[in-house]
Amino acid sequence: MIDSYSLIRPWLFSLDPETAHDVTLSSLDRAERWGLLRHLIEQPTHDPRLICGITFPNPVGLAAGLDKDGQHIDALGSLGFGFLEIGTVTPKPQPGNPKPRMFRLPAAQAIINRMGFNNDGVDACVKRVRNSAYWQNGGIVGLNIGKNAITPIENAASDYVTAMRAVYPVAAYITVNISSPNTQNLRALQGEEMLRSLLSSLHLAREALSDQHGLRKPLFLKIAPDLGQNDIKLIADLLMEFGIDAVIATNTTVARDAVQGLEFGQEAGGLSGAPVRLAATQVIQTLKENLGNAIPIIGVGGILCGDDAKEKVAAGASLVQLYSGIIYRGPTLIAECAAALRK
Fold first, then answer.
1. What are the CA-CA distances from residue 30 to residues 71, 172, 328 (Å)?
2. CA 27 remoteness from chain centre
3. Phi, psi (5° rounding) for residue 248?
4. Is 200 known to be catalytic?
């Protein structure tokens, strides 16, 4: 099958990154409506994995951030992903940080973004999920939730609970994002006292929602790659204490060692892509050492080929997610990673 993305990537990379992002997704939407995507994109073979009570058709998912609002679910679902994670969504709509807020670093196969949870609010996203054919036909959609920028960090739990209540009826699983570097003080929620308080609030809210809906939805936590081993051990202990179902490792990094001297290398925001690969894999390894088989790990960060996906699984991940690799490699990366992980 022809890799058409490699032909159009030079043109896309000539555009502003956020503009290219919007153009690409709009084009995918049109191709999906015309019924072209499934003929143009190699579809991974069925390779199911049962994780947290969910049967994933294959172990390669879309990471949160690419479709923050659920506006492109059907198109993305046609690319062969085993599951989609939508968001981060917040209780109220917010514009995010000022533009420009996304930067490519092609020499490092990396991206820096400081989007700042720009989204139309959780209610709009839930409506889009409900209206998508992908969801209606049983596609697995996880919802990634966060707090509004104007909400003081000491009141963060209220925002997360509000968002969880809104997404609960439609989400296959719910991811609590406490690791984005682009909302002021958000990463402080990874500290022991604040994380314990947050997880306690979410635990109580989920128990009530489970009773209300007659169904217990899995709850995941997404953490940063910049944590020390003691921090990771502490988080692992809290995950087990509060019955969190899975952990996603990792989000973007604030480290810049790998991009020193590159254009845009010192821009504020989270760095993703190839430079975060080893750090993310190390976090997975440390989590695995502390969690054993008690809680599954989803590996994300710097996956740009099938071998990178295998590395995450060898370190302890049960599933993987892609984002920056799609920007650099295109949709062929999905089937390549799925083939590399095929049992």
1. 12, 26, 21
2. 22
3. -105, 120
4. no
Q: Nearest CA to 321 among 115, 75, 142, 125?
A: 142
Token pair for residue 264?
């845009």
Which structural domains are found in the chain, ordered by start? 54-341 (3.20.20.70)
Q: Could you give the 3-state DSSP secondary structure of residue 116? A: coil
Q: Which two tokens stand for residue 72?
A: 């492109």
Please tell me which residue in 78, 132, 179, 180 is annotated as part of the active site: 180
Pairwise CA distance, residues 298 & 222, whole Å: 9
Rounded to whole angstroms, the Cα distance separating 325 from 332 reads 10
> Residue 24: enclosing H or E segment and its boundaries?
helix 17-33
62, HSE (Cβ side, Cα atoms, 13 Å): 32
pLDDT digits over 239-272, tens only? 999 999 999 999 999 999 999 999 999 999 999 9
| Cβ neighbour number for residue 74 with a 10 Å cutoff | 21
What three-state secondary structure class fits 115? coil
Q: 3-state SS string over 128-175?
A: HHHHCHHHHCCCCEEEEECCCCCCCHHHHHHHHHHHHHHHCCCCCEEE
Element (DSSP H or E) covering residue 50: strand 49-51
Q: How far is CA 336 from CA 184, 270, 305, in A?
A: 37, 26, 7
Render pLDDT for 310-342 as a digit per residue (tens, 0 to 9): 999 999 999 999 999 999 999 999 999 999 999
